[in-house]
Amino acid sequence: MALLDIRDLTVTRPGAAPGAPPAPLLDGVSLTLDRGGALGLVGESGCGKSLTALAVMALLPAGLRAGGSVLLDGEDLLTASERRLCALRGRRMAMVFQEPMTALNPVRTIGDQVAEGPRHHLGLSRRAAREHARAVLDRVGLDPARVSPDSYPHALSGGQRQRAVIAIAVACGPALLIADEPTTALDVATQARILDLILDLVTDEGLALLMISHDLGVVAETARDMAVMYAGRIVETGPTARVLAAPRHPYTAGLMAARPQHDRGRPGQPLAAIPGVVPPPGARPPGCAFADRCARADAVCRTRPVLAGEPGGRHRAACHHPVEPPA
Amino acid sequence: MAWFLVKRALALALTLLAASLLVFGVLEVLPGDPALLILGVNAREDTLAALRESMGLDQPALWRYLTWIGDLLRGRFADSLTYDVPVSELLLPRLAVSGPLALLSLTLAVALALPLGVLAAARRGRITDTAIMGASQIGIAVPNFWLGILLVLLFAVSLRWLPAGGFPGWDAGLGAGLAALLMPAVALALPQAAILTRVTRSAVLEVLGEDYMRTARAKGLSRGEALWRHGLRNAMIPVVTIMGLQFSFLLAGTIIIENVFNLPGVGRLVFQAISQRDLVVVRDVVVLLAATVGVVNFLVDLSYALLDPRLRHGAGAGSGRHG
Q: Ranges for the ABC transporter domain (chain A) (predicted)?
């Protein structure tokens, strides 16, 4: 049994006017993640990556409704009681957020913020939780001798703060770690070190990793499998190496072409960009949501929905006219 | 932190200087001759001149200002024009009434507003929230003197639980003193509490949307635990600011309320002094009130530093929140 099994997850926002149909933000998202596995989730801003993560944590913004099922160890999180969810969050599943500047409480010390989870979940005494927090901070590279656990977040650099956020996430030894764009807000050198840290933790502690990023490079480095999201749907899944070597969905191919690469193209030449923008929820066409931006689209694409099929293992694309693999 | 304190202390000193200059200047340009007031309109011109000289009124204004401030700083108060005793002797027994009154109403206002504001925010959009916001709207609309009169009608005239007014003095016992202050304190506190409730609610609502609240929830804290442990202290900063500002309204309110309840407090003293043209009392009491407000706002600034470590450690702008 997979550790995390997301089946046909939909998230809807109630219609603006009474009686108006609810706008789907996520539409039939299915993903699986095995114990100790690593799954990358990529896509442009606004395609629903973070929303998927928040739905798994059962921390969707107020007013949004989730349908389908999210199974963690076979237990459906969408129907679990709030009490049960509080026991699972931080203990079995944990999340690292994008913005280390705002994800920490500015008026409490980092040691305090890391110790809170262990006190809550592991029933540690104040003193024991403090010791535990020191050990966890040391583990994520915040050596208590150099960066005091009594520091406040404002005294830390962006990278150090993100390490503290990671320490909070892994403090109780969760089985699932969701990292939502954990390096986006950091400078390039720090990005590499934070990614290394996450990979270390995943290997050492046997965590399963759901790595969310708009950066294909990050996913290539961290995740064995990947899924590409577009406009609230999964458009392509498969082993990362195969998807990146031979993308089958034109959107994935477009994302790869849009990457700035020093070994391709000439200086001064504009980067390849996918024309157009992601259609907003509620304005998505009946067929393939990417059709309006796709060079390969025909009448079929605009009218008939495409399904990505079952997730996991095999390389699949939700496309009527997939890109042919290079001969 | 030290620099922060020095800056605030300097600002306080400048405020007091400006307030004393303003009070002195206004009383200087207002018509009215203290000597004429004491001796009456039928006094002879040479008697008036002699009195003016003995009161120092023939000295230049700047000199009189400096003498006044110098004396105040050394704790020496001039004599009241109507009572012929130093202002300090009038002031002290009245402070023993107004001080406890202000403290009691501030305590009541905070004790009401904080729980109600937090509750309204936590139950946003539900019936509890609507009820609390409705009640606070009424509280803001009701003037405190009218509320005072209603309280007297209910608790003193109909129910006869509390005295209608007057103050027995602290010698009569703590209970009797507090009983006399209770209704005026409630009348002062309710409109303040109404405003503070709304400020607390919006501060808590803002904090509820912060990223670190989501981090707290992702740790496994319940909504209530996250609010209690991570939200409140952050929400307190705007609330404390408004509390400080409200304190000056509270002092102004005591002038009216002490007259409604016939309390021998500072407010009543200044009210009487104005109607009797006792300018010596007016200027000393007004400067004292200004100093009180200044000191309270200084304390508010200090409390920011206690609440927010970024101020305590003198963090530069930009290392705080953004994005």
A: 4-256
